[in-house]
Amino acid sequence: MKESARRMLALALTGALASSFALFGCTANTTSTTSASSSSGAAAQPVELQLFAANSLSKAMDEAQALYTSQNPSVTFADTQYKGSGELNEMLAAGSYADALITASGATMDTAVEKGYVNEATRQNMFSNELVIVAKEDAPYQDVTLADIATGEHTLCVGDDSVPAGTYAAQALSTVGLYEPPADQAGKTGADISGKGGTYVGITPVLQTSVGNVCKQAENGDVDFAIVYSSDVYRFGGVKIVGIIPNDAHKPIVYPGAICTESGNYSAAEDFLQWCLTDPDAQAIWQKWGFTLAE
Predict the structure, then answer these.
(1) 83 touches 55 (CB < 8 A)
(2) Rounded to whole angstroms, how far apart are CA atoms 285 and 208?
(3) Domain 131-249 class?
(4) Lowest mean pLDDT among 58-62, 105-109, 279-283
(5) Which residue of 87, 89, 193, 293 has the fewest CB atoms within a 10 Å radius of its CB?
(6) What is the pTM of this model?
(7) What are 190-244's pLDDT values in tens digits?
(8) Domain boundaries defined on the chain
């Protein structure tokens, strides 16, 4: 009887120990899995952003992207496409992928919104620029005005109406009678016209499809003057500012940015655009290249 009791007690103790080890094993496995899951969640997933940006932003944006990646190593940038704003819209229309779009005019961003290329709720004005008259570096000109160009004594290069800088130039030139808008805008000038679809009067400017080519015409001395953004002087060099065009002679020069509707990296793209506007080091880069933050 006593022997039977001892055997039963031994079996009970063995079962209890087995249950304890099994329970410990489950707990250890659960802790290990939870820890690994937590560790995995803490590590930032790598993201590569594809940006489409206006030509005039190229130097500044390249520098800003390099700084951003140094601060956020998990975020890198694909080959950012710097084109005329209209061409960027054409690329999106053809099915090209981008996470964010930054154009050099409100009108081209309006088109992107209307066509559904970007999420309108994410649209915001990011940068401002200034329209200036430039000449080759050793040219004798200074304090040149639109009225001086209106004399017809000087040759001029501007962007065509596919280039935002060209439409701003047309608006400005209309204030001194050198550009007539299309019939539906007859009698209007400056900021009240689109700068597209009209005709030049009294002058025959050389038209180019990019501000880089416009600058090159002045740099080479092929024309006396060119009308470009102030940032282009920093970006291309080889020219000097000989006149500043009044801001009220054209629509405000703003660079709107927005996240593309097809973006697969919405949060990362949003974070980058906000960083561009709020980080002090980023702001120093824009100023270095001739931009100011939009008001």
Answers:
(1) yes
(2) 28
(3) alpha beta
(4) 105-109
(5) 293
(6) 0.77
(7) 999 999 999 999 999 999 988 889 999 999 999 999 999 999 999 999 999 999 9
(8) 47-128+253-293, 131-249
